[in-house]
Write a structure and sequence with these properties.
The chain is built from eight helices and ten strands. By secondary structure, the protein is of the alpha+beta class. Helix 5 packs across helix 6 and helix 5 (147-162) packs across helix 7 (192-202). Strands 1, 2, 3, 4, 5, 6, 7, 8, 9 and 10 form a ten-stranded mixed β-sheet that branches. It has helices spanning 2-35, 43-66, 82-89, 129-132, 147-162, 172-178, 192-202, 242-250, and strands spanning 70-72, 127-128, 205-206, 230-240, 258-262, 270-275, 284-292, 300-304, 316-320, 332-338.
Length: 345
């Protein structure tokens, strides 16, 4: 008799916990809808989104256990399935397509001892080119797999400024609309080296103000370069090999930020902290701007994303150094950029 009562009590408690948990998730979902202005077409669509929301919360718990120094939470992507997120914000895995792109030599092309125009002075342990003023503000690519164009554009912007030009927003839309090199396909993905080759052949990039980004809803526009509005060119580009190469490039006054292509499949719900596990696909391109605690326990790369400043660490993600996490040192490039004749003038 007593055992039956105890068993019924356990079942009742379990049901109560489940009801409380379901109510909590429902309340979180309602708060999510309000915060991100979600208005679903019909009850069926809302039920589907709520199911994806619950799946993402469960996945966040798994990711948090695998990445004890990082946090994963509710954000603008929380009602998307993994497949929807990948289609809208990532690219197809580039590893199968990389043979279509010519890989430039791997070497440091910066002139030894030549100071950058912004007079940034990296320290050996902690430095961020973004904080030094070598990068434009955080961008938002929207629902378009144009990260490759953003990564390339951001890197051209940075080296143009470091070479003596004014830090200027340049047109990633021009690359999305006009670059047909290899497998570069606008919102359907591409690779920074293809973008660099396009910019070099086109005579440069227009300013962002004159050729604004309009592909955020997932559609490229018609190519409409305005030669009079070209602000910067690419004269050459180079590969950076491995994490040691990343450090060499970002830790010298004649270096700068680096375009990197990575596995971002686990980034959907990232909200902060240091990522310590990652996949090995190549489905997203971003800009590595610096490092923290280099050479010490807890060291991490500072990586600028293009999903808006409300995502992650104010638009950034921190990635543990020393494991080549997310393939961060495998597909890295930098450029020479100027109005006409090269990085240093």
């Amino acid at each position: 008799m007593n055992k039956s009562i105890i068993l019924l009590g356990i079942i009742a408690l379990a049901l109560a916990v489940k009801v409380d948990n379901d109510m909590l998730i429902r309340r979180q979902f309602e708060e999510f809808k309000t915060k991100f202005n979600r208005n679903y077409e019909n009850p069926g669509e809302e039920a589907k989104r709520f199911d994806f929301f619950k799946q993402n919360l469960a996945k966040n718990e798994i990711l948090s256990k695998a990445n004890p120094r990082a946090t994963f939470g509710i954000n603008n992507f929380s009602d998307l399935s993994e497949d929807e997120f990948a289609v809208s914000y990532l690219m197809p895995d580039l590893k199968d397509q990389l043979h279509l792109y010519s890989k430039p030599p791997s070497k440091d092309f910066s002139k030894p001892g030549t100071p950058n125009a912004l007079k940034c002075s990296p320290s050996a342990k902690n430095f961020d080119w973004f904080s030094c003023g070598a990068c434009t503000p955080i961008y938002n690519q929207g629902q378009c797999g144009s990260c490759w164009a953003f990564s390339a554009t951001e890197t051209i912007e940075s080296y143009f400024a470091l070479g003596g030009g004014k830090l200027t927003g340049l047109s990633m839309e021009q690359i999305v609309d006009c670059d047909t090199h290899g497998e570069d396909q606008g919102c359907n993905g591409g690779f920074p080296t293809g973008a660099y080759q396009y910019v070099e052949s086109a005579g440069g990039l227009d300013t962002l103000a004159s050729y604004p980004y309009t592909a955020g809803e997932g559609e490229a526009g018609n190519c409409s370069v305005k030669k009079a509005d070209i602000a910067a060119t690419v004269t050459s580009y180079q590969s950076i090999d491995g994490e040691s190469g990343l450090y060499s490039q970002t830790s010298t006054s004649s270096g700068g930020p680096v375009s990197v292509c990575v596995d971002a499949s686990s980034w959907q719900s990232y909200s902060g902290g240091v990522l310590s596990t990652c996949g090995t696909s190549v489905d997203h391109c971003v800009q590595l701007t610096g490092y923290a605690n280099y050479g010490s326990s807890g060291a991490y790369w500072i990586v600028r994303n293009s999903w808006g400043a409300s995502w992650g660490e104010k638009g950034f993600i921190w990635i543990e150094i020393g494991k080549n996490l997310c393939e961060i040192g495998s597909y890295a490039t930098v450029v020479k950029s100027d109005k006409s004749t090269g990085y240093y003038v």
